[in-house]
């Protein structure tokens, strides 16, 4: 695939950040002869490891730019993560796909947990770029079972959708939603498809749901579409839930899934279920099977 051509918006964005920087910000000594604000182009070029002519053309939108070079320029301009993602998107690239670090991941889970807990009757979960579950609310545990009961190496949305008997027993016609989750993972994963964690999840799926191996061998992609699903946990009876999703502003590679009761009756059913969970009452569940790849 050819490298995208830098456009005028990217050039204007880089120039604005260059003009905001002072020489001292990047360890340079200011001189009295400066007639323009901020850093000179030659200084940014030197800090980035590129030629002055090439960097000038980059600001003018006249050259192609690789991700690696743009990241070097971003570092030279001291761009924060949000500004770096914006620069890459202006150049036609997705946000960086790097391994999640325990610290930032834990902070994200802590920050989002109060949001999840604010929906007492709406099952909600936060997943990272690998679709590992980071945090969830009481309604999620009441409906699907607590993820704490799932081994850590299988605590992943792909595994739950394909291999978790509790989810299959509760969710009517679970295959279309499960397949859509797999398609969406492929669509947004990018380089993460080759990450060690993705390989580990696929190996667990091979062990636990070998009859669905063609699912993670498929190459189809799709957006995760809003839809209404019907769940039938023992106790309150059928409940209709509306699926929506959004990305936390602190980490656009993460994802929140939210299942909202459609009617007041559905909300009352979820309220009963969560109260049963908190009081320690449990219900048995029947397991269903599945087969086909969409």
TrEMBL record:
<protein>
    <submittedName>
        <fullName>Helix-turn-helix domain-containing protein</fullName>
    </submittedName>
</protein>
<dbReference type="InterPro" id="IPR041413">
    <property type="entry name" value="MLTR_LBD"/>
</dbReference>
<dbReference type="InterPro" id="IPR010982">
    <property type="entry name" value="Lambda_DNA-bd_dom_sf"/>
</dbReference>
<dbReference type="Pfam" id="PF13560">
    <property type="entry name" value="HTH_31"/>
</dbReference>
<feature type="region of interest" description="Disordered">
    <location>
        <begin position="273"/>
        <end position="294"/>
    </location>
</feature>
<feature type="domain" description="HTH cro/C1-type">
    <location>
        <begin position="13"/>
        <end position="84"/>
    </location>
</feature>
<dbReference type="Pfam" id="PF17765">
    <property type="entry name" value="MLTR_LBD"/>
</dbReference>
<dbReference type="InterPro" id="IPR001387">
    <property type="entry name" value="Cro/C1-type_HTH"/>
</dbReference>
């Amino acid at each position: 695939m050819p490298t995208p051509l830098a456009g005028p918006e990217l050039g204007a964005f880089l120039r604005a950040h260059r003009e905001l920087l002072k020489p001292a910000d990047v360890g340079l000594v200011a001189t009295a002869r400066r007639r323009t604000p901020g850093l000179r182009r030659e200084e940014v070029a030197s800090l980035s490891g590129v030629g002055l002519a090439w960097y000038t053309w980059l600001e003018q939108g006249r050259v192609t730019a690789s991700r690696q070079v743009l990241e070097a320029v971003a570092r030279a301009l001291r761009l924060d993560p949000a500004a770096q993602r914006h620069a890459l998107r202006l150049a036609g690239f997705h946000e960086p796909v790097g391994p999640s670090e325990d610290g930032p991941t834990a902070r994200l889970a802590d920050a989002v947990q109060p949001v999840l807990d604010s929906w007492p009757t709406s099952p909600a979960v936060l997943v990272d770029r690998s679709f590992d579950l980071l945090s969830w609310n009481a309604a999620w545990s009441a409906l699907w079972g607590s993820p704490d009961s799932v081994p850590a190496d299988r605590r992943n949305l792909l595994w739950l959708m394909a291999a978790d008997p509790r989810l299959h027993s509760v969710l009517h016609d679970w295959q279309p939603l499960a397949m859509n989750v797999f398609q969406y993972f492929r669509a947004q994963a990018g380089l993460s498809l080759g990450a060690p964690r993705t390989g580990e999840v696929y190996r667990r799926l091979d062990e636990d749901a070998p009859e669905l191996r063609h699912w993670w061998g498929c190459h189809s992609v799709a957006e995760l579409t809003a839809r209404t699903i019907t769940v039938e946990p023992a106790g309150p009876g059928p409940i209709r839930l509306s699926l929506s999703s959004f990305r936390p502003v602190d980490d656009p590679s993460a994802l929140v899934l939210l299942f909202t009761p459609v009617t007041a009756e559905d909300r009352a059913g979820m309220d009963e279920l969560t109260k049963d969970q908190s009081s320690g009452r449990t219900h048995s569940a029947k397991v269903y099977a599945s087969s086909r790849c969409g």
